[in-house]
Amino acid sequence: TNYLQENLKSLNIDGRWVLYGLMSGGAIPSDEPAFLARLLAKRILLLPSTLRSRSAEYKEEILSRLEADPVGFPAIRSGDITVVVDKTFAMEEVLAAHRYMNQNENTGKILLAVTS
Questions:
Q1: How much of the chain is helix, strand and coil, in % rounded to 5?
Q2: Other beta carbons within 10 Å of 15
Q3: What pLDDT, in 10s, does the model give residues 45-83?
Q4: Pairing between β-strand 85-90 and β-strand 45-49 as defined by DSSP bridges
Q5: Between these two residues, 96 and 20, which has the higher pLDDT value?
Q6: Is the pTM for the entire model greater than 0.70?
Q7: What distances in angstroms separate CA 1 from CA 4, 14, 25, 105, one per listed residue?
Q8: d(CA 64, CA 32)
Q9: What are phi and psi of 61, to 5 degrees?
Q10: Cα–Cα nearest to 52, from 22, 21, 26
């Protein structure tokens, strides 16, 4: 599913859009030729990033800030912020999980269950 239009619609003027990763690839769909014009019209601040290439120290700093934030971990602990899990696969089903991910139809995280 392409969430480009929904994400842009959800932002107010002078909104911030933090983009972590590209599940559907980096191309703007052909039905969105005015995407950049719409960003400009709303004065959206687009902040692209990825954690994959970041150092362990950088990731630890993010976690420390989340723990110190009065809204961060308390909201997670209380259930006000939740992680949506779409489907869980056993580790032995890793190929099926990868095929499922490639369909790009999930509406949450896809997990691999690791048992020892």
A1: 40, 20, 40
A2: 15
A3: 998 888 888 899 999 998 898 888 888 788 888 888 888
A4: unpaired
A5: 96
A6: no
A7: 9, 26, 12, 6
A8: 38
A9: -65, -40
A10: 21
